[in-house]
């Protein structure tokens, strides 16, 4: 059975740099708080009207496709991960297919938030291994800046997120020393509501134990997206940051060790770990726990903030562009986020 390898990788981050101080025009916050708690100095915001999650994905995809030595016409499957799609439906996969004038290939949308890219990579890996497809485009892209609460009320979330996109092209390889060795996917829905965007949605506050049996269809439909929701800022993401932090620092090391053990490696064998860029403090905790050196862990949250599904491919691409990853290097990718979902992938570059 062939393995899949990353044949090409690309990233796109919007031009506009937004510093921590820039956010003070909207909310009570300060640079020191943000840097101390998260490591973030600045993030990028997409052009408000001219850039979308899909257009950024297209830019990253063009680079990945070119570096893979192929063309958009040769791509035979798309897997697109995002939590900030252009539309509630259809997903961004078909919009990318249209924008890049690809053939009428399958386009799969993945909704696993911060772990989205790794879930997408794992799905693509299985399709390559079975021989079903030979050129799969895997994308993670986010336009967070369009869906955040920019008042002081939302500051614990708004300061964290940034926009951007990353993409890879997966192809089969027979080379023993290259390719994706294994992927590991997990979920625990017990805490689904502690990092979530509830609205618009069909939940009718079911999870909060509220009863709406007396409402008629028209009233219930109003609950999908109502004026009251907007007035009460219920259309923005919610996060219990400390609860997420506590779980993340357990699950990140666990899923990394799972990948290493599966393939007979130790943490010292990792050439570079690319953790999802959730919080620099989480990455530092993981580094300490696994006894990794600074050189073994790549962080760029300082410049881009948390770009959820885009963070792993953006960081992987940047590390590779800086010459930090060479052919044959053992690379570990890991992510944790809303769901909760978490995942890892171990590969030989
Ligand atoms: O990728 C998705 C997964 N997400 C994560 O992994 C996030 C994990 N969690 C975190 O990174 C941290 O919990 C945060 C960085 C989000 C927050 O840090 P924290 O130490 O947990 O702060 P907190 O939410 O407990 O808030 C502490 C204080 C509060 O003030 P009081 O009540 O102590 O007076 C907040 O109101 O900090 C205040 N605060 C802020 N102050 C200035 C919250 N946000 C801000 C802000 N600027 N932006």
Q: What do these coordinates show?
A:
Strands 1-7-6-4-5 form a 5-stranded mixed sheet, with helices on both faces. It is of the alpha/beta class and 349 residues long. Helix 3 (92-99) links the parallel strand 4 and strand 5. The protein folds into 2 domains: 3-173, 3-Layer(aba) Sandwich (Peroxisomal Thiolase, Chain A, domain 1); 179-191 and 239-348, Peroxisomal Thiolase, Chain A, domain 1 (3-Layer(aba) Sandwich). It is globular, with a radius of gyration of 20 Å. Helix content is 31%, strand content 22%.
Provide the low-confidence segments as ranges: none
What molecules are bound to this protein? oxa(dethia)-CoA
| Known CATH architecture of the largest domain | 3-Layer(aba) Sandwich
- Please report which band the strand proportion falls in: under 5%, 5-15%, 15-25%, 25-35%, 35-45% or over 45%: 15-25%
- Biggest beta-sheet profile: 5 strands, mixed
Q: pLDDT average, as an integer?
A: 95
State the helix count: 11
Outline of this structure?
With 349 residues, the chain is α/β, with parallel strands linked by helices.
Name some characteristics of this structure.
single chain, 349 residues, alpha/beta, Peroxisomal Thiolase, Chain A, domain 1, five-stranded mixed beta sheet, four-stranded mixed beta sheet, 11 helices, 13 strands, 31% helix, binds oxa(dethia)-CoA
């Amino acid at each position: 059975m062939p393995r899949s390898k990353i044949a090409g990788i690309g990233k796109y981050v919007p031009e506009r740099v937004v510093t921590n101080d820039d956010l003070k025009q909207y909310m009570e916050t300060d640079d020191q708080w943000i840097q101390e708690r998260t490591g973030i100095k600045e993030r990028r915001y997409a052009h408000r009207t001219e850039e979308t999650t899909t257009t950024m994905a297209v830019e990253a995809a063009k680079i990945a496709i070119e570096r893979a030595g192929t063309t958009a016409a040769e791509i035979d499957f798309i897997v697109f991960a995002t939590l900030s799609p252009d539309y509630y439906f259809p997903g961004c996969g078909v919009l990318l297919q249209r924008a890049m004038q690809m053939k009428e290939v399958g386009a799969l949308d993945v909704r696993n938030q911060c772990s989205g890219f790794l879930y997408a990579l794992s799905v693509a890996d299985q399709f390559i291994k079975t021989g079903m497809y030979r050129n799969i485009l895997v994308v993670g892209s986010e336009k967070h800046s369009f869906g955040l609460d920019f008042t002081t009320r939302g500051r614990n979330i708004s300061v964290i997120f940034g926009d951007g996109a990353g993409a890879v092209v997966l192809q089969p390889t027979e080379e023993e020393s290259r390719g994706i060795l294994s992927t590991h996917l997990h979920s625990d829905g017990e805490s689904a509501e502690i990092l979530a965007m509830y609205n618009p949605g069909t939940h009718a506050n079911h999870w909060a134990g509220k009863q709406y049996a007396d409402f008629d269809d028209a009233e219930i439909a109003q609950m999908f997206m109502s004026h009251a929701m907007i007035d009460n800022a219920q259309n923005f993401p919610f996060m219990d940051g400390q609860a997420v932090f506590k779980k993340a620092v357990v699950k990140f090391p666990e899923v990394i060790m799972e990948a290493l053990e599966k393939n007979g490696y130790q943490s010292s064998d990792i050439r570079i770990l690319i953790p999802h860029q959730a919080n620099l403090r989480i990455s530092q905790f993981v580094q300490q726990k696994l006894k990794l050196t600074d050189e073994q862990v790549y962080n760029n949250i300082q410049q881009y903030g948390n770009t959820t599904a885009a963070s792993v491919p953006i960081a992987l691409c940047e590390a590779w562009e800086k010459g930090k990853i060479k052919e044959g290097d053992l690379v570990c990718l890991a992510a944790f986020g809303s769901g909760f979902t978490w995942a890892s992938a171990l590969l030989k570059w």
